[in-house]
Amino acid sequence: MKLDRRQCLAVVMAVGAVVAGAANAQSYPEKPISVVVGYPPGGDTDAMARLFADKLSQRLKQPVIVENKPGAGGTVGNSFVGKARADGYTLLFTPNPFTTAPFVMKLSAGNQYDVLHGFEPVIKMATQPLVLVAHPSAGVKTVPDMVAAVKAGKPFSYASPGAGSPMHVVAEWLNRSAGVKIAHVPYRGVGPSVNDVVGGHVATAWVTLGPITQYVATGKLVPLAIADAKRSPLAPNIPTLAEQGHKDVVVGAWNGFFAPKGTPADVIKLLNTHLNEIVKMPDVVEKMATFGALPAGGAPDVLGKTNATEHEQMGKLIKELGVTAE
């Protein structure tokens, strides 16, 4: 079959694009890479981002720099990366409020982003169990204890690291399941919420495991429940909500890397390969455990499916529970 001049030109351009893309992927990276974190320095997300960035830098032989862009529940950083050039030099490291924030927050035009179609998933790095802890003065050691105390008229409140966070969602789901109304006290991050429950300013808190391990060990906090479907190997003595009569109340936390939509597939593959190897390194696994995090990994589609499933399921749940950031 003969091709006319226009068809020949189209073929040449297509082949050229493939060759150029392959050449770009082979030479990537040629300059520093920026990893955007939508939260302030000092928290679990920032610390893990720096851990992974340091290891990635060593492997790619280029600086991998963590850039904090906090604000509006992480959406400032999310939207920044969503609008960035899709060349592999701007990445997003984010926990799962990336997926749920648009359901609970009224985002300004500048902070809006497309959760399902605006990014390329790179890799799911870790999962973290959510933990309910109480100050000893609350006088409870189990979830049934807490529910009974609330129903008997004892005032209770729970701290969370922010309105609309997974911790906020699981707490309101537990409220509904138990038929109680424990008041929400939102904070700006896990650290401040932990500080206030340790200080006895709030009776309980939903947090991640890492920041409260030392306080549980010294008796300054009492662990009541894990929100995962099964007990965590990082805290096998803490029972699940399911074990305590709330079998359907399961909410976890995860984090991962995304890139702007249209980032070359070969670049995504390269990053995924390196990060899969990094997340299995013994020293990385050991350090992640101090954050209460377990390694995940897998193909980019693992993160893509997690994001899509949670968008559907959590979106429905958030609407049912009336969870908002207001």
From TrEMBL:
Signal peptide residue numbers: 1-25
Pfam families membership: TctC (PF03401)
UniProt KW ATP-binding keyword: no
Coiled coil segments of this chain: none
UniProt keyword Signal present: yes
Alphabetical keyword list: Signal
Membership in a protein family: Belongs to the UPF0065 (bug) family.
Protein name: Bug family tripartite tricarboxylate transporter substrate binding protein
Higher taxonomy: Bacteria, Pseudomonadati, Pseudomonadota, Betaproteobacteria, Burkholderiales
